[in-house]
Amino acid sequence: MIVTITFNPSLDYFVTVDNFQIGVTNRTTSELLLPGGKGINVSTVLSHLGIASRAICFTAGFVGDEIIRLVRQEGIEVDAIPVEKGCSRLNLKLRSADGTEINGMGPEISAEKVEQMMRKLESLSDGDTLILAGTVPGSMSQTIYRDILERVKEKKLQIVVDATKELLLDTLPYHPWLIKPNHHELSELFADELKGRTLSGSTEEGLEEIRGYMQRLQEKGARNILCSLGKDGASLLSENGEYFHAAAPEIPGKPVISTVGCGDSMVAGFLAGILEKNDREYAFRLGLAAGSAGAYSDRLATGDEVRGMMDSMSF
């Protein structure tokens, strides 16, 4: 079983407004409503690739009801924890205004609701995969990732973590099976050493530097590290010492539409590849294909789009 947890899911309202202006009434030329949140995104792409998962999430109000409806519409088992105080996030994404976004706060999640979530994890069995992804609402403890792993430490789970800063670092003593920082997040983890500089995979020297910091995270406890590098593709450092890098595949003549959810798609593709062939290079390529295919779509990539991107890549 694969279980994803989304602490602060959202309903993402993507709009295009031609010639957007501040202080006047603007009208949309296109609209799209999609469920959001990193764990839900992973579950969605897994579903597109024919792999079942259970999506645990906290939901509140009419927005929460719509999130549940849309996720179930994708064929995903939703295990929602209802929250009475507040409302799930409704995020506004202005596609035609330089990527401007307005994201909601989300509901207030009590300690009782967190304990309900913890009890749901008791059903996990040895060999299951647990995916912790995304930010944590301000009403919850910022040690929740560590608290979860402490709670399930006696189970032999494949733990996947896609988080930033202390949320990620707190999980390393538990030896997560996979972590997936991007190059910006990797730079933040070593900000003191880098003195504000952002790591880049655009040169061989830059890639080697990124590999060195990935090795540092392995020394801290991570087993497999998948680092997304934006237009420069991705790198994988496996627990067996294997290292793979590939540039992001492109669709000639087609512009990138949106990078929202591309990292989540990469995680889903990598997991799908492991389940299909238990081969890390294959999984790496499928993950890269999934992340890249999503960039050319106004929503998360379909299975056909991912497979088509995979077929276009040279090994």
Any overview of this molecule?
With 315 residues, the chain is of the alpha/beta class. It has a 9-stranded mixed β-sheet with strand order 5-4-1-8-9-10-11-12-13, sandwiched between helices. The chain has a 4-stranded mixed β-sheet with strand order 3-2-6-7. The longest helix is centred in the C-terminal third of the chain and has 17 residues. The protein is globular, with a radius of gyration of 19 Å.
In terms of topology, how is this protein built?
Layout: E1 2-6, E2 10-16, E3 30-36, H1 38-48, E4 54-59, H2 61-73, E5 77-82, E6 89-94, E7 101-102, H3 111-120, E8 129-133, H4 144-151, E9 158-162, H5 165-169, E10 178-179, H6 183-189, H7 191-194, H8 204-220, E11 224-228, E12 234-237, E13 243-246, H9 262-277, H10 280-295, H11 303-312
Parallel strand pairs: 1-4, 1-8, 2-6, 4-5, 8-9, 9-10, 10-11
Antiparallel strand pairs: 2-3, 6-7, 11-12, 12-13
Helix pairs in contact: 1-9, 9-10, 10-11
